[in-house]
Structure formats: C-alpha cells, structure tokens
Design goal:
Length: 255
C-alpha cells in the first residue's frame, strides 16, 4: 500500500512539474507575441517619421543640383536628418536589446526619454501636448528592456486613446517615490474605458479596439504583458478611467 501511495504522490509531483513548465513556456510565448505586436505598431510610426526625415533631404538635394546656392542648406538638412534618423535607430535597438531580465540601477527620467525616442514620431505632429514630470534624481532597480516595454505599451495605448478625440489632446508621464515604492503614471484625456471593460482590460487578447477581423486595431497583448512584467518585478499595475474624460495607468514597483 505504501508503495502504491508513494507512486501516486510521485505521479502528482510529475504532473505539477509538467504544468509548471508549460505555464512558464506560455508566459515566454506571450512575451514574444506581445513584443511582435508592439514592433508592428511601432513600424508604422517609425516608417512615417523616417519618410518625414527623408523627404526634405531629397527635395533639397534635387534643388541644390539646379541651384548651387542651395548646396550648403541641402548639406545642413541632410546632416540634421541623418542625426535624427540615427537617434531613432539607436533608441529602437536599445529597446529591442535583450537584457536577459537582469536588473540594473536606472535613472527613470533617462529611461522615459529613451522610450519616447523609440516611438520616433513627435507627439506635437498629432497635436498632442506631452508632459513629462519625472524627477531627474529618481532611480529604480529593474531590467531596462522590460521596464521600457511596459512604459512603451502604456504610451501607445494613451496615444491611441487621445487620437480618437478631436482635441485638445494631452498625455502626461509622471513618477515619484512613495514609501518603499516608485510610482509611474501614464495619464491621458482620451476616450476613456467603460466600466464593463475595466475588469477585463489586463486579460490576454482582450481589446477595446476594432474587432476580431481587424487585427491592426489592437491585439489585446500589451496590457496583459504589462501586468505580467510588473508582477514579476514584485509590483502592481492599476487603472482609473472615466469614459469620455481619459485614463490613468499607475505602475508601482519596489525600490
């Protein structure tokens, strides 16, 4: 009897180990799928911005071929545009770099700035008033790539929310140290989230954008990833929203 009971216990332990491995594998797949979805969203913005950089360079080069007096101006525009394009590419490469989940001491203001640069498109081009209120001295220990992914997803959602309204459009990123935690908030004055959607907003594949046939309007992975990433770091993420007035997502992470 004891042998049979022992075999049953071992069988249950094996099942538990298998399920644990399967859950870990699914989490990795969710992270990869979310990363691809974010890259797809960013591609449109980056392509549009690079086109804005290249168009005046080409125009000035063509004019300079006909009018030598414009050569200096064409060179200046080319240099400025090239520097901007290089900055965008460096920011995107930094965002995509895998740090293997290793935590480092980050200056939060610099991390936010690098994330905004990776978005490439200047918010002012879409008539968005962007306010960044992050103390220069505020630091946080966390994996850089993972934290940037969280901030980026919240910014992409905020941008989409305010673009659904004619204006005025505003996004605010703020951070502060509170007791033994650092609070990072991304707020917008966009369309807001209905009460029936708030309970599901962090569920995988749930999206308030578009429909099942229109995958370009949202994959329902960004906020699910945010919750998983924040909880893995020992933190919490919450949302407060009023339909028609906007939303604020708050991430709380241990110092």
């Amino acid at each position: 009897m004891a042998t049979v009971a022992s075999q049953k216990v071992e069988t249950q332990q094996e099942k538990l180990q298998r399920l644990t491995k399967e859950v870990a594998a699914l989490r990795r797949q969710l992270r990869q799928a979310q990363h691809l979805a974010t890259v797809g969203t960013m591609t449109a913005m980056v392509s549009h911005e690079l086109n804005n950089i290249l168009t005046p360079i080409i125009n000035y080069a063509q004019m300079a071929r006909k009018n030598p007096a414009l050569v200096e101006k064409a060179i200046t525009r080319a240099a400025e545009g090239g520097q901007r394009a290089t900055s965008i590419c460096k920011s995107i490469l930094g965002l995509a770099r895998d740090d293997n989940g290793q935590s480092t001491c980050l200056h939060l203001g610099e991390t936010v700035t690098a994330t905004l640069d990776a978005m490439a498109r200047d918010p002012r081009r879409d008539c968005i008033d962007l306010a960044v209120k992050v103390p220069a001295e505020l630091t946080l220990t966390a994996p850089r790539a993972e934290l940037q992914q969280v901030i980026l997803n919240l910014l992409i959602n905020a941008r989409a929310a305010v673009l659904e309204k004619p204006g005025p459009r505003r996004i605010e990123i703020s951070a502060r140290r509170h007791d033994k935690t650092v609070e990072i908030s991304v707020g917008d004055n966009g369309v807001g989230i209905s009460s029936e959607h708030l309970e599901k907003i962090f569920d995988p594949f749930f999206s308030t954008k578009g429909n099942d046939e229109d995958t370009s309007q949202g994959h329902g992975l960004g906020l699910a990833f945010c919750r998983q990433a924040v909880e893995n770091l020992g933190g919490q993420i919450s949302v407060a929203s009023t339909p028609g007035e906007g939303s604020t997502f708050t991430v709380r992470l241990p110092c």
